[in-house]
Every structure is written in structure tokens, then in C-alpha cells.
Amino acid sequence: MKIIKRSGSEVAFDINKIVHAIEGANNEAEPNERLTADQIAFAAHSVEWLCERAGHTVSVEEIQDMVENQIMALGRYDVARRYIIYRYVQSLKRTANTTDDRILSLIECNNEEVKQENSNKNPTVNSVQRDYMAGEVSKDLTMRMLLPQDVVKAHEEGIIHFHDSDYFAQHMHNCDLVNLEDMLQNGTVISGTMIERPHSFSTACNIATQIIAQVASCQYGGQSISLTHLAPFVDVSRQKIRRQVLDEINTLGLEASPDKVAEVVEGRLRDEIRRGVQTIQYQVVTLMTTNGQAPFVTVFMYLGEARTDAERHDLAMIIEEVLRQRYEGVKNEAGVWITPAFPKLIYVLEESNIHEDSPYFYLTKLAAKCAAKRMVPDYISEKKMRELKLSKGEQPGEGDCYTCMGCRSFLTPDRSGNGFDNIANAGNYEPGKPKYYGRFNQGVVTINLVDVACSSKGDEKKFWEIFDERLELCHRALRCRHERLLGTTSDAAPILWQ
């Protein structure tokens, strides 16, 4: 039988340690209050029996609670009091430095909590271990110094869950929607280097992957980009290719009909789109960010975002190529075609692609074929989004349709009506238009509804009372996240703020 130490590592259950701990408290008690040797053995074996039937690997804290209960069940309250004092003193000693054992256990790859925590991270890789080491320091600071003790206690008891405490010490946010349109159309700065507006679709895709990598290293959540922001560069490449084709024809002294020129241009353009999409696919799955994993990125495919019919046509070509390449997959080290973990894909169902006679129904058929084999894309209903995401007090059905962030959560509708003007200094700002790209969430706190239900013991009134109390705890914890980000300078993450 195994138990989990405070460091997170698994060790074999040792009943002798329980016996020694009880004996230590027993020797401190008054002689007439002490347990007999048989009672000590009975208490220790009772704890062992409870651990075997717990249905999970128990922690040291759970075992110590069991020991206290067994001593009190035997009526030796002075011994129990001494044992509680012993636990408290040991806790104070650990407070002085709570990270050494956990860090050493993850370096030696025997920290079970870390192994089970994140399937996207391999805890044996050096870069991941560095991230986990920093995370242990952040967790320690968060729980000892940065959060109110009632929030910490609720988190430790499982009443609420304060997510991502391993990043909370730094002034970082969670997930976001990348304003790729502004960064591509108006230029951006990456690692102190000015990146101007790209002059081809493939270059735009390459820059997009660099932006993805930079953003992933400056936050701890997922991110989403929209293919609509890449669509204008299809026509940029089309015009560039057309000029090249005409130059080649003139150089060779040939003549070609406009239809033939258009055919050659479109053929080369599709090759360009294929290369650009392939760049995004392979760059994303091979990039390693500072937190030791590939960027958690989602690609949004929404025809309704296109501003013109021509742009929508170009966007459809990109979507088609993305779906075809995802259907094919990527090769693993053995040369076998597999489903890549990233990027995630989101496909919007709308009037132009859900009916058999609609112009882009072929994309929906391709998406369904891809989903059957690769379990992506996920789907968003434009109709339902517009019913639910109301930003300006409009009627259901007239709301906004936008992508979720990489972590699958959605931004709240922008009800500010851009009343704060262009505080982000975005180059693609439109007065009065709800803002989604360029926004983020500050972090997550979860309420344990199952525990609320169990604690209410079937009393509905009591359920709502407990629910309200714990929601207030969640609110306090979320306020801590908000206040942690207040005053953050843009120099902390230039790619996000400048």
C-alpha cells in the first residue's frame, strides 16, 4: 500500500511510523491518561485498515487526521491534544521552507502529483522541470503570503479550487484572444525587432507562429487566433504571383489568355496556401515555449467574420487546406500518421455552410470527415452564440459570435460598448464595435458543487445558503487575481501590452 507525502512523492505505508508518533505523544501525557501498548497497536492497525479501504492513495494529512480520531475514540484526550500540538509544531517547521522536498522529488521524477497534473507536459524533460521548479516557489509564496488564509484553507479542503497557483506569484494572466489582425496589418515588435506588414500569405503564417510562441511564453493559459486575420494576405500573394507570372510570360516572349493566366495564378496560390498552413501546423507542434510545452493554441474558422465576398472566398480556401492537412495528420518518430495535439480547431456552423445548397456546405462535409477521423474540429453554432452573447442590450439572435480562448472558456460579452475608447491603442479599433480580440481572462477559481450538495444533506434551503457563502469565497479569490494584475507594467510582457 502506498501513501502520498507532502512533497507529492509516493512511498510505502509504514505502520511503525504511526506507532512511534502515538508513542511520542503518549509519553508526554500524564501517566494516568496514557494509552496501553495494546491500545496503541489497535489505533495503528485501525488507521491501516481505514487506509486500505479508502479507495484512493491517502495523504499524510489524511492519515494524521485518522490517528487523532482513533486516539480520541479510545478516550485519551490528553494524548490526542499532545499529538495535535506535535502536528502544529511540525507544521511551523515546514513553513520555514516548504519547497525543498517537493523540488527534489520532481527533479528525481518521483513526484506523483506532477506526473498526473498536466498531460501536455513531460515531467522528465529539463525545460519542463525548470518550469515546475519555478511553479513550486510560486505555490509556496501564494499559499503562505499572497492569499488570505480562509481562501487557502478552502482550497486545501477542496471546497473551492484556486487554479494555477504555480504562476500566481508573477503578474501574468491566463488565456486570451490574440489580436492578430492588428499585429499583421500594422506591424508589431518581437524581441526588440520591428516586424512590418508581411507581403505574402506564407510570410504572414510564419509571423503568426512567432507571435503564438511569444504570447505563450508571456501567459500561462491558452490562446486563439482567427484565420480571418490571415485571409487578406491571400489576395496579397495572388497579386504578387500574378505579377510574377506576367513577368515570366513577357520574358519568354509568349502570349497567354487572361483565363490561362488566372488558372496558373490560382494553382500557385493554392501551393502558397498549402505551405503557409503547413508552417503553422508544424511550427506549433514543434515549438517549445518557456513553460516547457507546445503552445496551447486554437484556430478559429468563421466565414461570417470576412468583410467582403472576395475575402470570404479566400478564407474558405484557407479553411479547406487546414481541414485537409488535419485530416492527414502528422508523422510521429516512427513515421506513422497521428493526430497532432495542437492547434485545436473551432469551426462555426452558419447559414452559408449548413444547408446542402449553401455555397460552403462542402467545408462542413470536410469538417465532419475530419472530425470522424481526428476528433477535431469542435463546433460553434453562430445561431446560438447570437442568442446568448448579447453585448449591447440587443435582442436574442442579434448578439456576437466569437471564438473561445485556448482553454475552452469564453470571454464575457463586451458590454462596455467601448465606452473607454481605444485604451489598448489597437490599430484596428472601431468605435462602438464590441471588442474581443486583444482581451484575456485573469484566472480561474472553481466552486465544488458536489461538496455543497453533500454538505447541505438534502436540505435545499441549506444548499443555497452554503452555495452563496462559497461563491463569496470564490469572489474574494478572484479579486485577489484582479488585484495581483493591477499596476502591471507593459514591460512585463511587451508582446501583449505594447
TrEMBL record:
What is an example of a GO molecular function annotated in this UniProt entry? ribonucleoside-diphosphate reductase activity, thioredoxin disulfide as acceptor
Query: Boundaries of each ATP-cone domain copy?
Result: 1-94
* InterPro entries according to UniProt: ATP-cone_dom (IPR005144), NrdD (IPR012833)
Q: Its Gene Ontology biological processes?
A: 2'-deoxyribonucleotide biosynthetic process; DNA replication
Q: Which domain of life is it from?
A: Bacteria
One Gene Ontology CC term in the entry: anaerobic ribonucleoside-triphosphate reductase complex
Q: Which Pfam families match?
A: ATP-cone, NRDD
Query: Per UniProt, which keywords does this protein have?
Result: ATP-binding, Nucleotide-binding
PANTHER family the record matches: ANAEROBIC RIBONUCLEOSIDE-TRIPHOSPHATE REDUCTASE (PTHR21075:SF0)
Protein name, entry field: Anaerobic ribonucleoside-triphosphate reductase
